[in-house]
Design brief:
The complex is a heterotrimer of chains A (500), B (367) and C (324). With 500 residues, chain A is of the alpha/beta class. Chain A is 33% helix and 24% strand. Mean pLDDT of chain A is 85; it is low at 1-16. Chain B is built from 13 helices and two strands. A two-stranded antiparallel ribbon of chain B has the order 1-2. In chain B, a hairpin with a 4-residue loop joins strand 1 and strand 2 (204-205). The N and C termini of chain B lie close together (5 Å). Classes of the chains: A alpha/beta (500), B mainly alpha (367), C mainly alpha (324). At the A-B interface, helix 2, helix 11 and helix 12 of A face helix 8, helix 9 and helix 13 of B.
C-alpha cells in the first residue's frame, strides 16, 4: 500500500498546506421543533480524509445529506471553493464534483452491476451502452484492485462487494469530494480495513477530499487525518489532526455523559431453556445451541449470514427444513405465534416496522399485539407500562407517530410485560440513539439477572462483548463454536469474516 | 436510521387526534358525494336535460314517496349485506371484488337444493336457504382464498375472474338442470315456500331485518373482539399479525369466506324476497355496487348501512328519472363510481395533512 | 368471448388442416388486442404502478376509437383517438395514484366502474345504444399473396387486417426498444428500488407518471383495436373482461414482453378454439366453453404469482425520506 504515512502521523497536517474543497458555515437543520444540526462550521480539504465521528442521532447523516443535495439546511451556507454551493438534488452535487456513498445502498438488486453504473450516469452519458459501462466498471475496479463482475446481479453480490460497487459508482463521476456515510457499518473488520486502505490510496493518489462518517473510533485512528466530533447535532470538538487527539477523550466526547454505564451482576446459569438441534431453514444451514436460565447468548455476525432465517425459524415464520427447536420440552418449529407467546418466548424482531408494530393502530392497541383475548377490554395498565419505559407518545395516537427509539421501547415493553422465559432479541439497538439503546440493553440485562434467557443477535460486536455471557459467530448460515469470556475481539472479528 | 429524540410531545392544538380523524372520516364521503353530484349535473346538462329538474325528480321519487322508500330499502338490503362483508375484508387489506359471482353461486345453490325439497314449510326452508346461500358464496370465494394462500394469487384479479366463470355457469344452470320445465325462458322454478314473508307498513321482506342484525353485530365484532382486532391489525401491517397472532393463511381465507357468505346470503334473499326465481339477471350488479358502498361507508358496518341507503336511493331516483325523461341510469352509475374516486382522493389528501400535522407536533425521524 | 363470424362445423372438421388454420388465424386476431393491453400494463407495472383500471382504459379507448372512426370514416383516426383517450384517462389515474398517492386498488376499481358506466351513458346518448348499433368502417385486409397460402400459419400471419399488423408492429417495436434502452433501466429501477433511482437523480414520480400514461395509451389503443379492427361496433361493457385477462397475462408472463406475447397468443387460440367448439354439437354445454378461458387464466395465475419477477415497489407510493 502506498498511502502516505506522512499524512497519518499528523505531523504535517498543517491546515494551510491543503486547499479547502468545501466550506460549511453555520449550517443548521431543524425538523419540526427538533434541531438535527446546530450551527456547524467545517472545512473539508483536498488530499485528506476527514472523519466525522458521532453516535446514532448525532446529526452525521443529516450533515451528509445536506452536503450531497439530498436535504437542504434550514440556515447557514456552503461554499465550494469561493463559490456558493447549494445543491437541491444529488445530481447537482455531482455536477459540482461532490459524490455520496450512502449508508443504505442505493443499488437495484435485480439489475447487473454495469446497469447500476449506467443508472447513475448523467444525461450526456446516457447513450453509453451496457457493454461500455461494463468496460468502464472493470477499468475503475482495476485501478483500485477490485474485481467485480459487471454482469453479475447485484442481489447475488456479497455485502462487501456491494459496498465496493457503491464506491466505484461514486467514483465513476470522478468527484473531487467523496462523502462516505458509515461505509464499514455492514463490513467485517477485515473488509473494513481493506476498504479504508483503498480510501487512503485514493486520497494519496489523486488528492481528492474524503469525508468519512463513522461511529467507530478504530477507523478514525487508522484511517483519518483529521476528526470532528458531533453530538446531538452540535460540534463537540472542531476538526483537528487525529494524531493530536487522545482516543479515550474522543470516545468521551462522542458519547457524552448522559449514558449510564451498564450494570450487571452475573446470575448463576440455570436449567436449559431452549435447545436448538441441527436447525436448517432457507439461508440458515446449520445451528446448534442451548440457552440457559439467566444467560445471554450473543450471536455475532455481519448481516446476510442467515440471521433473518434463524430468527424467522425460531418464531415459526419459517418452517425448519431440518432440526428441532425445543423450549421447555416442547417443540417450537412451525408453531403458531400465539402458542409461542403462551410458551413464554418473546420476540424483538430485527425489522420492528415490519414484524412488531402495526403503524396505523393506536399505541395501546399495539401493546396488545399477540396478547389479545377473545373480547377486547381497555387495558388499564397501558399508560403505566408506557411511562415505565418512558415511551414518548400518546396512548391513543397511532404507533406511526412514534420515533424509532420510542417504537422499539414500545415493542420491548410489550414483549417483556408478561414475564416471558426467553427473549429473542434481534439487532435490538440498531438505529437507536445512545439513550434509548442504553435503556434497552439494561432492560435485557435485568431480565437475564431475574432468571430469563436471552438470545441476542447483533452485528455490533462491541455491544455483544459488553452484554453477552457467551458468543457464537454466525457465518454463511452456520453457527460457530461457543466462545467463553474473556473474549478476544480480534479472533471473534476474524470469525465474523469467515476466518477461523 | 438516525433518530432525534425530542422533548415530550406538546399538547395538541385545538381538537384531539381522535376527534379530528372522526371528522375527516365523515366529511370526506359527504363532500365526495356532493362533488360527484355536481359532476353529474354537468353530465345531465350535456344530455340536454335540466339538472335541477332531474335531481328534484330523483330525490322526491326516492325519498318522498312510500314506494320510493320501499324500493330504496329493498335495494339497500343486498347492498348493505354484501358491503358489510367486503368492507371488513377491505379493512383487513384483503380485496374481494367478486361478490357478484359469490352472490350468484349462493343463489344457485339454494334454489338447487330448495327446489328439490319444496314441500317443507318456510320456517325450515328459509333458514336452510340462508345457510345454503352462505355456503355457496363462501365456497366460491374460498377458491380465491386457496389460490391466494397457496399460490400467492392476487385476490383482486382472482375474485373478479371467478365472476366471469360464475356467470356462464348460472346461465347453464337455468338453461339446463334447474330450468323450470313450464317456462319458455331460461329460469329456475319459483322458490315456493321459502318466499320471505313481508312486514311493516312498507311491506319489506324480512331480509331487511337481517341487515338490522348484521350491521350492529359486525360493528361490535370489529371494535370489541379479537377477530375485529385482527382485521384491523392485518389491514395495518399483516406481517406483524403473522409474527404475533396467526399464521399467514388465516386472515385472507377468513375474510374471503366471510365476504362470500354474506354475498351468498344476499343472493338467497334476493331470490326468496324479490325475484322468486333464479335467472340470468339474478346478480343485477349488486356485487359491484357493493364495492362502492363499502368504500363510501369507510369499510365500517354502520357507515356501510348509511352508504347503502344513500346509493340505492340514488339508483331508485335514477330509475324514476329514466322513466320520466329517458335519462340513462348509466349516468347515475357513473356518478357513483366517481364517488369512489373522490373518497379515495380525499383520504389521500387528508392523511397527508394529518401526517404533516403529527410530524409538526412530535418529532422528526430521519433515515 | 369471441365475436368472429364462424361457420357451423361438424365433428369431423376438427382434424382437418383448414380447421386449425382458421383457429390460428382467429386466435391471432383475438390475441392482438389483449396482447397490446398487456404490454402496456407491463410497462406501467414495471415502474411500480398497478393499473387495475385497465378494463376501464380499454373501454374508454374502445368508445373513443369507435366514435372517431364512425364520425371520420377512417379506422386510422379511430386508432389514434383510442390511443389518446387511453393516455388521457391514464394521465388522470396517474395524477391520483402517483402524485396524490391515492390507493392504487381503489383508484383502479373506481376507474373501471366509472368507465363502464360512463361509456355506456355516452353510447346511449350519442348512438342510441340499441340492439343494432351503428357500424364503424372496416379496415382493409392485407393479404400477402404467396405467403398466405402457407399451410396452418399462412392465414394467421399473412392475411390480417391492416390494424392488426400495426398492433403487431407496436408490440415488436416496444419489445425491442425495451431490451436495449437506457429507459428500461430507469423504469425498472423506479419500480424495483425507487430510492436508488431517486439518488441517481431520476424523478421517481415523473417516470411513474410517464410509464402509466404510456401503458394506458397502449390500453386505449388495445380497446380501439378490438372495436375498430375486429368488432366494428360498440356496446355497453363490450370488453367483457379482456382488461382483466391482460392484467393476469402480465403476471403469467412474469413482466417480460416475450412471455406476455406468448401468453396472449395462447389465450387467443384457446378463445378461438372454445368459440369454434361451441358450434359443434358436443356433449359439453357451451357455457362451460365460455367460462373456459377464465378458468385457464385463473390456473395460469398460479404459475406466475409466486415468482420473484414482480417489481418490488409495485403499488407502493414513493415518498422521499425527508418529505411528508
Amino acid at each position: 500500500m502506498d498511502s502516505s504515512p506522512r499524512l497519518r502521523s499528523g505531523a504535517v497536517t498543517d491546515a494551510s498546506e491543503h486547499r479547502v474543497a468545501l466550506r460549511v458555515r453555520g449550517v443548521s437543520r431543524s425538523f419540526a421543533d427538533v434541531r438535527a444540526l446546530a450551527d456547524v462550521d467545517l472545512d473539508i480539504r483536498y488530499g485528506e480524509v476527514l472523519a466525522v465521528l458521532g453516535e446514532n442521532g448525532a446529526g452525521k447523516t443529516t450533515l451528509m445529506r445536506i452536503l450531497s443535495g439530498l436535504d437542504q439546511p434550514t440556515s447557514g451556507e456552503l461554499y465550494r471553493g469561493e463559490e456558493r454551493y447549494a445543491p437541491r438534488a444529488p445530481r447537482e452535487a455531482v455536477e459540482h464534483g461532490v459524490a455520496l456513498v450512502q449508508q443504505h445502498f442505493a443499488l437495484v438488486p435485480t439489475m447487473t452491476a454495469a446497469e447500476n453504473l449506467l443508472l447513475f450516469r448523467a444525461q450526456r452519458d446516457r447513450r453509453t451502452s451496457r457493454e461500455q459501462a461494463a468496460r468502464d466498471l472493470r477499468t475503475l475496479g482495476a485501478d483500485l484492485g477490485f474485481d467485480i463482475d459487471p454482469g453479475a446481479r447485484v442481489g447475488d453480490l456479497s455485502v462487501g462487494e456491494r459496498q465496493r460497487l457503491e464506491l466505484l459508482r461514486a467514483l465513476d463521476a470522478d468527484p473531487e469530494v467523496l462523502l462516505l456515510d458509515e461505509p464499514t457499518a455492514v463490513l467485517t473488520d477485515a473488509e473494513a480495513d481493506s476498504l479504508l486502505e483503498v480510501i487512503r490510496r485514493l486520497v494519496a493518489d489523486s488528492g481528492r477530499a474524503v469525508v468519512l462518517i463513522t461511529h467507530r473510533l478504530r477507523e478514525v485512528v487508522t484511517g483519518a487525518d483529521r476528526v470532528m466530533v458531533l453530538r446531538n447535532g452540535e460540534v463537540v470538538s472542531p476538526a483537528a489532526a487525529v494524531g493530536e487527539r487522545d482516543a479515550d477523550q474522543l470516545a468521551h466526547e462522542m458519547v457524552g455523559a448522559e449514558v449510564p454505564a451498564i450494570a450487571r451482576h452475573n446470575a448463576a446459569r440455570g436449567e436449559v431453556l431452549v435447545s436448538v438441534d441441527g436447525l436448517a431453514a432457507s439461508r440458515l444451514r446449520h445451528a446448534d445451541f442451548q440457552v440457559h436460565r439467566g444467560e445471554i447468548l450473543g450471536i455475532a455476525g455481519v448481516d446476510g449470514n442467515g440471521q433473518v432465517a434463524l430468527e424467522s425459524a425460531m418464531v415459526g415464520l419459517l418452517r425448519p427444513e431440518q432440526g428441532r427447536i425445543v423450549v421447555h420440552g416442547k417443540e417450537l418449529g412451525g408453531v403458531r405465534p400465539r402458542e409461542r407467546i403462551a410458551d413464554g418466548v418473546a420476540y424483538i424482531p430485527s425489522d420492528r416496522h415490519e414484524r412488531a408494530v402495526v403503524g396505523p393502530m393506536r399505541c395501546d392497541e399495539n401493546l396488545l399485539l399477540g396478547r389479545t383475548r377473545r373480547r377486547l377490554r381497555p387495558d388499564p395498565g397501558a399508560a403505566e407500562v408506557m411511562a415505565a419505559w418512558s415511551v414518548k407518545g400518546e396512548l391513543d395516537h397511532p404507533a406511526d407517530s412514534l420515533s424509532g427509539g420510542n417504537a422499539q421501547k414500545l415493542v420491548c415493553a410489550r414483549e417483556l410485560r408478561d414475564d416471558p422465559r426467553l427473549v429473542l432479541a434481534c439487532q435490538p439497538t440498531r438505529g437507536l440513539d445512545p439513550g434509548a439503546a442504553g435503556q434497552l440493553r439494561q432492560a435485557l440485562l435485568d431480565f437475564a439477572d431475574a432468571g430469563g434467557g436471552v438470545v441476542w443477535m447483533s452485528a455490533d460486536l462491541d455491544e455483544l462483548l459488553e452484554v453477552a455471557d457467551r458468543i457464537r459467530v454466525m457465518f454463511h448460515g452456520r453457527l460457530g463454536e461457543a466462545i467463553e469470556p474473556p473474549f478476544d475481539r480480534g479472533s471473534i472479528g476474524l470469525a465474523m469474516a469467515g476466518v477461523s | 436510521m438516525t433518530t432525534i429524540d425530542a422533548r415530550p410531545a406538546t399538547p395538541t392544538r385545538g381538537l384531539s387526534h381522535a376527534t379530528r380523524a372522526r371528522i375527516t372520516t365523515v366529511l370526506t364521503p359527504v363532500a365526495s358525494v356532493m362533488a360527484a353530484l355536481l359532476v353529474g349535473a354537468v353530465l345531465i346538462a350535456f344530455a340536454g336535460e335540466n339538472p335541477v329538474d332531474i335531481y328534484r325528480t330523483m330525490f322526491s321519487e326516492a325519498l318522498f314517496t312510500r314506494s320510493g322508500w320501499r324500493e330504496t330499502l329493498l335495494q339497500a338490503t343486498p347492498l348493505a349485506l354484501i358491503a358489510v362483508g367486503l368492507g371488513l375484508g377491505f379493512r383487513a387489506g384483503v380485496w374481494n371484488i367478486g361478490a357478484e359471482g359469490q352472490l350468484i353461486v349462493g343463489a344457485v345453490l339454494s334454489i338447487a337444493v330448495i327446489g328439490s325439497v319444496n314441500d317443507a314449510p318456510g320456517i325450515v326452508l328459509i333458514p336452510l336457504g340462508l345457510v345454503l346461500g352462505a355456503v355457496g358464496g363462501a365456497l366460491w370465494a374460498s377458491i380465491a382464498g386457496y389460490l391466494a394462500v397457496r399460490h400467492g394469487v392476487n385476490t383482486v384479479i382472482s375474485t373478479l375472474l371467478l365472476v366471469f366463470i360464475a356467470e356462464p355457469l348460472l346461465n347453464w344452470a337455468v338453461r339446463s338442470p334447474l330450468k323450470d320445465p313450464e317456462s319458455f325462458l331460461p329460469q329456475s322454478r319459483v322458490i315456493g315456500n321459502a318466499t320471505l314473508p313481508q312486514m311493516g307498513f312498507l311491506d319489506l321482506h324480512i331480509g331487511f331485518l337481517l341487515v338490522l342484525i348484521v350491521v350492529p353485530v359486525a360493528s361490535y365484532v370489529l371494535r370489541r373482539t379479537r377477530f375485529g382486532f385482527l382485521i384491523r391489525a392485518h389491514g395495518g401491517n399483516r406481517f406483524a399479525v403473522y409474527a404475533n397472532e396467526t399464521r399467514e393463511s388465516v386472515m385472507p381465507m377468513a375474510m374471503l369466506v366471510l365476504g362470500g357468505s354474506l354475498a351468498g346470503i344476499a343472493g338467497f334473499i334476493q331470490l326468496a324476497g324479490v325475484q322468486t326465481r333464479v335467472g340470468s339477471g339474478t346478480a343485477a350488479g349488486f356485487g359491484f355496487t357493493a364495492i362502492i358502498v363499502a368504500i363510501l361507508g369507510r369499510n365500517d358496518p354502520v357507515g356501510v348501512l348509511i352508504a347503502a341507503v344513500a346509493l340505492s336511493a340514488m339508483l331508485v331516483g335514477a330509475e324514476a328519472a329514466q322513466r320520466d325523461s329517458g335519462l340513462p341510469v348509466a349516468l347515475v352509475q357513473s356518478v357513483q363510481a366517481l364517488v369512489v374516486i373522490f373518497v379515495a382522493a380525499g383520504d389521500a389528501v387528508a392523511s397527508r395533512v394529518s401526517a404533516r400535522r403529527a410530524r409538526r407536533r412530535s418529532r422528526a425521524v430521519l433515515p | 368471448m369471441s365475436f368472429d363470424p364462424v361457420p357451423v362445423l361438424a365433428q369431423s372438421d376438427i382434424v382437418t388442416l383448414t380447421f386449425w388454420t382458421a383457429v390460428l388465424a382467429s386466435g391471432m386476431r383475438l390475441a392482438v388486442s389483449t396482447g397490446v393491453a398487456a404490454i402496456g400494463e407491463m410497462i406501467t407495472e414495471r415502474s411500480g404502478v398497478l393499473n387495475l383500471g385497465l378494463e376501464g382504459v380499454m373501454l374508454a379507448g374502445g368508445f373513443a376509437g369507435f366514435a372517431a372512426s364512425f364520425e371520420s370514416g377512417s379506422p386510422w383516426v379511430g386508432l389514434l383517438a383510442g390511443l389518446l383517450a387511453g393516455a388521457f384517462v391514464g394521465a388522470g389515474f396517474a395524477l391520483l395514484v402517483v402524485y396524490l398517492r391515492v390507493d392504487q386498488v381503489v383508484a383502479g376499481l373506481g376507474l373501471t366502474l366509472f368507465a363502464i358506466a360512463f361509456t355506456s351513458f355516452l353510447n346511449r346518448e350519442i348512438y342510441g345504444g340499441g340492439t343494432s348499433p351503428p357500424r364503424a368502417p372496416k379496415p382493409g385486409v392485407v393479404e400477402i399473396p404467396v405467403l398466405k397460402e402457407i399451410p396452418l400459419l399462412g392465414e394467421s400471419l399473412f392475411s390480417q387486417n391492416v390494424v392488426a399488423y400495426v398492433a403487431i408492429g407496436v408490440v415488436v417495436v416496444i419489445a425491442v426498444a425495451l431490451r436495449r434502452s437506457y429507459w428500461t433501466i430507469v423504469i425498472d429501477a423506479v419500480g424495483e428500488t425507487p430510492s436508488a433511482a431517486d439518488a441517481a437523480g431520476h424523478s421517481v414520480r415523473l417516470v411513474r407518471f410517464a410509464a402509466t400514461v404510456i401503458g394506458s395509451a397502449l390500453g386505449g389503443l388495445a380497446g380501439a383495436l378490438l372495436i375498430v379492427g375486429q368488432l366494428g361496433f360498440f356496446n355497453s361493457n363490450i370488453t367483457a373482461g379482456r382488461g382483466w385477462i391482460a392484467l393476469a397475462l402480465v403476471i403469467f408472463g412474469r413482466w417480460r414482453p416475450g412471455l406476455i406475447v406468448a401468453g396472449a397468443l395462447l389465450f387467443g387460440v384457446l378463445d378461438a378454439l372454445q368459440f369454434r367448439f361451441q358450434t359443434l354439437d358436443s356433449a359439453v354445454p357451451f357455457e362451460f366453453l365460455i367460462a373456459l378461458p377464465f378458468v385457464v387464466t385463473l390456473l395460469a395465475l398460479t404459475i406466475g404469482s409466486r415468482s420473484a419477477a414482480a417489481p418490488s415497489a409495485l403499488t407502493i407510493p414513493f415518498v422521499r425520506a425527508t418529505e411528508d
